[in-house]
Amino acid sequence: MALIKMTTPLVEMDGDEMTRVLWQMIKDKLILPYVDLKTEYYDLGLKKRDETDDAITVESAKATLKYGVAVKCATITPNAQRVEEYNLKQMWKSPNGTIRAILDGTVFRAPVLVKGITPCVRNWKKPITIARHAYGDVYKNTEFAVPGAGKAEICFTDENGNETRQTILEFKDAGIIQGQHNTDASITSFAHSCFQYALSVKQDLWFSTKDTISKVYDHRFKDIFADLYENQYKEAFEKAGITYFYTLIDDAVARVIRSEGGFIWALKNYDGDVMSDMVATAFGSLAMMTSVLVSPNGQFEYEAAHGTVTRHYYRHLKGEETSTNSVATIFAWTGALRKRGELDNLPDLCDFADKLEKATLDTIESGEMTKDLALLYEGQAKVLNSEQFLDAIAGRMQ
Length: 398
Ligand code: NAP
Ligand code: MG
Description:
The chain is an alpha/beta fold. Helices cover 44% and strands 20% of the residues. The chain has helices spanning 17-31, 46-51, 55-67, 80-85, 95-103, 184-201, 217-240, 249-258, 269-283, 310-317, 327-343, 347-365, 371-374, 386-397; strands at residues 10-14, 39-43, 69-72, 106-111, 128-132, 142-146, 150-157, 163-171, 175-179, 204-208, 244-246, 263-267, 289-294, 300-304, 368-369, 382-383. A 10-stranded mixed beta sheet has the order 2-1-3-14-13-4-5-12-10-11, with helices on both faces. It has a two-stranded antiparallel ribbon with strand order 6-9.
């Protein structure tokens, strides 16, 4: 059989530990037999990041700006213990943080649904994708404890020294205060990423904040989204047959629970943090959650939402058997290959991505899966080890 051709390389970002082991197996067993794979390879494994003083991470992000589509393996974000374990020159920053800062993107997380694993919310039939604004608010706050009676004020001094001042509270006794911010530029990028992504997957976009209470702060988010939609995206949305819908967060929560899924839910930083954990848990497992970083200019970086599965890797190193779920990593590859196919007008590549996803889901739905899923599965599950699971999918592909 002739291999499927590619025209533009994918930016391939290799990673660490168990996911690095799966990465190679996925390529060897599921992709290379069918695709004449073209990638520009960047090794973001911790050893290489240390050797290159993390320049490799920056280069891989720049390559993503150039080519438009990347696929990333999970990577270690070093802590003190990792500095010792890998004898690092320094505690390098999170690669995802570095890449996100360069692409200026928003992360979209969506569950992979299979028959036999029912979401806790029974009417959810399609995935709900969460888009979390990953800048500012309470994550970059200034806060302190007020020791006793006194006046708390909020003050802004402009470049010419003019002050705008408002009283927060005349404290009668001890308490706490907090200052938060966001920027129009960051909110605008977030909104662009959300509109771009909704168009790319042809799903409705919901956005919710608490604008009735926060009449300036949250209202600014609402206005920026509304303005961009009216002036830049409305026509494209109508053409794609999708809608943009703003509602108060309380109302959104109620609607999400009653919905059947199948839309993107954009949220401010804190709301997105909390709601993404709730939605992910209700759908089943972190190993079945995909993640894509979308830049405001329409660059895409696909990955799994979970980490490098360290505990399994240490067992693997001891020669013990592992049963690590590769679904999210497979879907990172198929997401990236499909996007490359769409951008380069290669229907065979898109078709291959669809087939590989179907073979993966069919394998699980026929009862063959890794241990983590067997615990959630409603039927009779046959538990496979990491490699057997990939072999079972490869068998279906043939
Ligand atoms: P993790 O790798 O997500 O694993 C946590 C636990 O979740 C595992 O021990 C395992 O539970 C279960 N699990 C996660 N993915 C699984 C899979 N595919 N199949 C089966 N079980 C799975 O999180 P972590 O142990 O907190 O972090 C490990 C490393 O990953 C850290 O160095 C961290 O910096 C990094 N990390 C990277 C990313 C990223 O690159 N995007 C994200 C998060 C964390 P059991 O052991 O009970 O089976
Ligand atoms: Mg969280």
